[in-house]
Amino acid sequence: MRPSKRDELVEKALEVFYHNGFHATGMDMLAARTGISKTSMYKHFRTKEDLILAGLRLRDKEFRLWLFRRMEELGSTPRSQLMAMFDALKEWFAQDGFRGCMFIKASAEYQEASDPIFKLSADHKRLLFVYVSELAARAGAAEPEALARRLLILKEGAIVTAHLRLGENPAKDAKAVAKILLAEALGS
Amino acid sequence: MRPSKRDELVEKALEVFYHNGFHATGMDMLAARTGISKTSMYKHFRTKEDLILAGLRLRDKEFRLWLFRRMEELGSTPRSQLMAMFDALKEWFAQDGFRGCMFIKASAEYQEASDPIFKLSADHKRLLFVYVSELAARAGAAEPEALARRLLILKEGAIVTAHLRLGENPAKDAKAVAKILLAEALGS
DNA sequence: GCTTAAATTTACCGATCAGTTAATTAACTT
DNA sequence: AAGTTAATTAACTGATCGGTAAATTTAAGC
Asked: For position B117, which CATH number holds?
């Protein structure tokens, strides 16, 4: 079945928010870009915040699905899958329209710890942590959670660096560090 | 001599922008918070963007001054100063009012590569890179720029992680990776 | 004390913000 | 085809956006 109007709205809104920012994107602009009238949008979502949250939930699902699948495709063992995270990042950075991490940006505009948008952003990162921890455990790490935290610091750093267009290949740099890190944690 | 009205304005505006975001902070709100009327503000700055840029330039200077001085205070050799960067970060993260990196946030709200705010944010990071590269060279790194890029990826990752309040001590995690990295690059 | 210029204030500009009301169109039921 | 309901629209709300014009206060020069 074809996507509902509501799903179309969320998808398109997400795209505009990503490209343009949250506060900088008004509901009128979204109406113009989606071809859906404002009143219809407010039929589906009570507030702009609700629409943003729906967009972020979609992004969370899509991004994790994409990243985890790509890691599994590019790596055959838990250890090589961890390494492959940085190959996947490299692909992402090269996509045109890449503008950094949606959740870093969301948490930059909605900073209150109690803000649902901030919370959802942190939750996304925690779900990544769960997956990477699991993988680190299966790779035989003595402290899988510590290893996961460190790998994810590299990931976040690479994303920020890529977004600011510093360095030629932040994913490659991060991967080089990850290699050393895994050698230390799992043996070379 | 006491700070000029203009400097007071920039300082206070910077603080509000940092806490509240850029688009979310209106000029009327700044007038209310600083006690300076809007017309006076526009005497000093032609546009809101100019005020933001002045704030970011101040932050750039202050932050680099603070970080570099702290690294020199906490470390006696180039190598230990590189390590001390993460001790300084830990101090920063623990300050109340810490809300992540001003420049990451600025570049999240002003994403166009041609935007002066985006450019200034990237320039700030490049100045950090120059300093860390220099230090890496003096520490005897065979590829000081590669080492600097990698250490700074750890720095950015730690900042983002701390801002989202993931993990207990991202600075410590990043430092642990830095230690391994330096051992590999400079010998243990 | 008077004049002049600089700094500050109040009040306002049109545009846009998130969100709503009332009228219209489209779709389904019988 | 008529009647009912659901979806959509244009037009509007008060508030706020970035920015300004004209009036008022403050300060300086003589």
From this structure: 1.10.357.10
Residue A178 lies in a domain: yes
CA-based nearest residue to B105, from A22, A96, A92, A50: A22
Number of domains in chain B: 1
B69 touches strand C (CB under 7 A): no
| Residue A150: inside a domain | yes
Q: State the Cα–Cα distance between residues A89 and A50, nearest whole angstrom.
A: 29
Positive or negative: CA dihedral B164, A65, A22, A119: negative
Tokens of B155: 């720095």
Distance CA(A131)–CA(A27), nearest Å, equals 35
DSSP conformation letters of B66-82: HHHHHHHHH-SSHHHHH
Range of the domain at B81: 5-186
Angle between helices B78-94 and B170-186 (to 10 degrees): 170
Residues 15-74 on chain B lying near strand D, CB distance under 7 A: 23, 25-29, 38-39, 42, 46-49
Paired tokens of A97: 């329209």
In a domain, residue A89? The reply is yes
Q: What is the C-alpha separation between B142 and A100, in angstroms, rounded?
A: 31
Alpha carbons within 13 angstroms on the beta-carbon side of residue A20 total 16
- Tell me how far apart the alpha carbons of residues B121 and A119 are, in angstroms, rounded to a whole number: 26
| Residue A61 counted as domain residue | yes
Chain A residues touching B161 at Cβ < 8 A: 125, 149, 152-153, 156
Q: Spell out where A66-138 has E strands.
A: none
Query: How far from B165 is each of A8, A87, A101, B14, B161, CA to CA, in Å?
Result: 33, 26, 16, 23, 6
Q: How far apart are CA A117 and CA A114, in angstroms?
A: 9
pLDDT in tens, chain B (188 residues): 345 778 888 999 999 999 999 999 999 999 999 888 899 899 999 999 999 999 999 999 999 999 999 999 999 999 999 999 999 999 999 999 999 999 999 999 999 999 999 999 999 999 999 999 999 999 999 999 999 999 999 999 999 999 999 999 999 999 999 999 999 988 88
Token pair listed for A6:
């509501």
